[in-house]
Design goal:
Length: 255
């Protein structure tokens, strides 16, 4: 089953929680009000330590206060930094997707998302050895969108929804989709560049209303806040980058 990417992180619960439900919801139950999503202006930006001897890649040379940077160049910078650091963690916060992502590029690329979708539905999503795996609490299932097995289809749907915001390799693609970014003339905090997309843009059928990225002065990613509008749904997905360069070991789950 091919699932449209338009729902992205905002519709993750439909793949994880909704598809897993065995009984229909109580239509008479009062609707819960979601907590307000963090905004790009209120999210904290703090500088985290980087490995000793760290030098920013050459692709980051054009990032300086007051500059306008092309999306492809900025995306390449962020991607090169994450690959050079080799591993780390991404914290995720949003109306339909929350959790932490541990990732590594060594020896092969892999990630593990320990997440919560929708109304506090826990799940785990892995990418290991070229395959996605999903565990909704009853054992890991390998994703396969072409399978006749519904659990494998659900795993593929969940991977498609979550991966754009939990997969570090997708960050450069998302950043590059905005033609231009402005680096603030004044730092957001000591040693922090605030870099914002100059206008709304479109990515994989998702309308990105605003995108604010914060980098340390040595180009280390600190945080990103992405305000999305998707088929009438609106929300902000916040990413925080932590523990960059610290060892991460990820193994494939057993089904």
């Amino acid at each position: 089953m091919k699932v449209a990417r338009a729902a992205a992180a905002l519709a993750l619960a439909a793949a994880i929680a909704g598809c897993a439900a065995q009984t229909p919801p109580d239509e008479t139950a009062p609707e819960e009000t979601a907590a307000p999503a963090p905004t790009a202006e209120t999210a904290p930006a703090t500088v985290t330590p980087t490995p000793s001897g760290w030098t920013a890649p050459d692709s980051c040379a054009g990032i300086e206060a007051g500059a306008t940077v092309g999306g492809a160049d900025l995306g390449a910078c962020v991607q090169d930094v994450l690959v050079a650091q080799g591993s780390g963690r991404i914290g995720l916060s949003g109306p339909m997707l929350r959790g932490t992502v541990d990732f590594t590029f060594e020896p092969d690329y892999a990630f593990h998302l320990d997440g919560t979708g929708g109304t506090d539905i826990p799940f785990d999503l892995w990418f290991v050895d070229g395959a996605h795996w999903l565990d909704r609490g009853d054992g890991a299932v390998e994703a396969d969108a072409s399978s006749d097995d519904r659990d494998q289809q659900i795993a593929a749907e969940a991977a498609e929804y979550a991966a754009p915001f939990s997969d570090p390799r997708a960050i450069a693609e998302l950043i590059a989709a905005s033609p231009a970014w402005e680096v603030a003339a004044e730092p957001a905090a000591a040693g922090v560049y605030r870099i914002a997309s100059t206008a709304p843009f479109h990515w994989n059928e998702v309308d990105v209303d605003t995108f604010v990225l914060r980098l340390a002065s040595d180009a280390t990613p600190l945080s990103a806040e992405i305000a999305l509008t998707v088929h009438g749904f609106a929300g902000t997905v916040t990413q925080t980058f932590e523990r960059l360069g610290q060892p991460v070991e990820i193994t494939a789950p057993t089904g």
